[in-house]
Write a structure and sequence with these properties.
There is one protein chain. By secondary structure, the protein is of the alpha+beta class. The protein folds into four domains: 7-169, 2-Layer Sandwich (Beta-Lactamase); 214-268; 274-324; 330-481, Histidine kinase-like ATPase, C-terminal domain (Heat Shock Protein 90, 2-Layer Sandwich). Helices cover 56% and strands 18% of the residues. It has twelve helices and twelve strands. The chain has helices at 7-63, 68-82, 115-122, 163-210, 228-268, 270-293, 298-323, 335-345, 347-352, 372-390, 420-423, 443-453, and strands at residues 87-93, 99-102, 127-133, 137-148, 151-161, 331-333, 355-361, 368-370, 394-403, 406-413, 457-462, 468-475. The strands form three sheets. A five-stranded antiparallel β-sheet has the order 2-1-5-4-3. A hairpin with a 2-residue loop joins β9 and β10 (406-413). The chain is rod-shaped and about 185 Å long.
Length: 481
Amino acid sequence: MQIRSSIHDRLVIWIGLSLSVIFLALFFVVITAQKEATIGKHRIFATTMIQTAIIPINDALYLSESDSRDFLQSFINNFTREYKDQIKYAMILNQYGEVMAHSDVTENRKIYSDVYSMAALETIDPAFHIYENDQYGRTIEVSAPLGLVSFSHGAIRLGLDAKPMISELRRTTLSIMILFAGALGLIIFIVLQISRSVTRKLRQTVQVIDQFDFQTTDPLTLPESDDEIGLLNETFLKLEERLIFARSSMEKTNKNMIQTEKLAALGRMAAGVAHEINNPLMGLKNCLHLLKIDPENSEDHLRLLKEGLDRIEVTVSSLLEGARKKTTADKEFDVNLCVRDVLNLLGHRLSTEKVITQIQLDDKVPQIKNSKSGLEEVLLNICMNALDAISGIGTIKIVTKVHQQTVMITIGDSGAGISEEIQSKMFEPFVTTKEVGKGTGLGLYVTREIIDSMGGEISYNVSQLGGAEFQIDIPLQKDSE
């Protein structure tokens, strides 16, 4: 059987997809949290740096306001020199946005009205933001107001290099991605191993079950397991035991049915046999009576007595051979003579029911070595079925001829025939078209079994007489087993 959808593939796909979605969501949560932590760390550093600078600047502005511009410029220069690796620019604005001191002295006395400068002048707490500066590139800026209590002197703005923070974010992101990818790969690998373990057990079970053969009574050996697969194996073994027992019982029943049908057929022909014996007996009595009254013609009377006794002997022999099981070896016999013997057995019923027999026996049919009693039983079954189907005045036609390497026997009747519904199963046991109590439904089944054992074939057609027609092909030379 071809597998269209593998359990192994479905387990890997669905578990893999589910874990991928979960890990992806978890990855974004961790990345977001790590990003916030990294930015928060740099925010604290920048805020600490600007708070360090605010105290001396406020003191200078409060104590020496007259020469504060030079002091502020000197402070900015020293401050940027001290943190030259971190600071890109530093500036101090007065309350009107004018640059009082700048790390780039060319910017002094310029008035800044950009959004970041206005935000620095208006805020009362340190402000932190990351932006793309046209001159300095990616920059972290922190700003804070200058002044003591309500006395305002402007604001200070520090621009820090954002590259260390960006590099740290990238390294952290890459590390987390590698960690998550490794974890996901490990889990998928574990799922693959578990799935392979499960499907391997199932495939082993299927391979063993596929070896199950009704022709042997040896039980299968399935792998033991303490899971659902083990339960499946245990259940199948119990089913196997029931199947083996059922097959054994069926074979015994089948043999009994075949023998029962043979005996039933013999019982149905008992009237014909009685007639075949009664007629010669009446002739014998007549001959004995003639011997008394006409002793001069004793020779003719004795010949008639011998013919009558021979006829009784043939009838009884045919009866005993039909009832006997087929344990004797095959022997050569004349097919045409076999047909005539069967018709003789049915002679009483044929004459009583006024059924005409048309016989076309080919003289070129040779003797064959096979089961004579088996062929007689087959012919007897089919002819008696034909008589039952005709049920009155009618015709039975029997033709024998040689066709290639077989002897072909055709038996047709003028009965009702067999319906198309029954034709497909007429060789099965217990299939009959007769009324209840008038047929066992085993005649054609036994007939086919006998023909098979003889190495022949049987087929059904519609007879030219309007009823059923059975064609029996028996090989001239039976294959040796």
